[in-house]
Amino acid sequence: MDQATRARDWAEIQERMLVPLYEAVYERLEVGSGTRVLGLGCGSGLALLMAASRGATVTGIDAKSPERVRLARERLVPQDWGTRARAERLIVDGTLEDVADAVGASGEPGYREPAYNLVTAFEPIGCVAGDSEGLAELLTGAGPLVRRGTPAVLVGWGPPERCTTSSVLRVATKLADPLRTPGSWRPALRDDLEEVAQRAGLRPDGSGRVACPFGYADIDNAVRGLLSTGLFDAAVMATDQAQVEKEVTEALHPYQRGDGTVWMPNVFRYLIARMP
Q1: 268 and 210 in contact (C-beta within 8 Å)?
Q2: Contact predicate 81/17, CB 8 Å
Q3: pTM, whole model, 2 decimals?
Q4: How far is CA 156 from CA 179, 189, 194, 261, 268, in A?
Q5: Bridge-based pairing state of the strands 203-211 and 57-61
Q6: pLDDT tens-digit readout, 31-78
Q7: In whole angstroms, what is the distance from residue 123 CA to residue 37 CA?
Q8: What are phi and psi of 146, to 5 degrees?
Q9: Count of CA atoms in the C-beta half-sphere (13 A) of 261
Q10: What is the CA radius of gyration of the chain?
């Protein structure tokens, strides 16, 4: 599957599964017209679009997937929008230094008001070994763009016993085992989010759990959505695309309902931590 197709599958099928999580976080933090959001790992931008619909000014950054970033720009900054709208919605395919240059912020004493008062890292961690690598450094790097005490939101998978999708994700581990790769699925641990916050020097200030069921029109739709997450990449490398699709299809059958739809209840966890 080419990267553009996978990015489109993510944006059209999988990304919406986390909408209840985004809504819960925005409600709790009262995101609105006075909010300036910096979205780390923004992907194709749905969470930022939801914040913008509440009146927030939003900036997204993602260096992992140019294809998802392209979709985020299509969603948030259409070509026919005026200058003012573009200033309120910025998508950066690059580094935090690029963001700082774009918004005119600086780490020097006496610089203008920090650009952002909310940082989000909505890409869930705690599902693949090593999936939090680099996140603490990214949060630290965001420091010059925010004031002390700014809330940062980290997100992770809930306990495996409350995430029925875990049984399907285990397929990735089984198939990737011959490579003994660090990209294999692993069950979420209780303190995954707190450990990242600690490494970044953030102070935990509340958490919550949100039900985010994965619902699909049919088995094929579910396979496309799940493979778009990247959680099966190591399995594809160890075997091949057809083998992974076959085994994921078989693992999904217990969750297929009489009308052909697929329904998998899950719980995700978020941590609010304060920037140093």
Answers
A1: yes
A2: no
A3: 0.89
A4: 25, 9, 10, 26, 6
A5: unpaired
A6: 999 999 999 999 999 999 999 999 999 999 998 899 999 999 999 987
A7: 15
A8: -135, 165
A9: 8
A10: 19
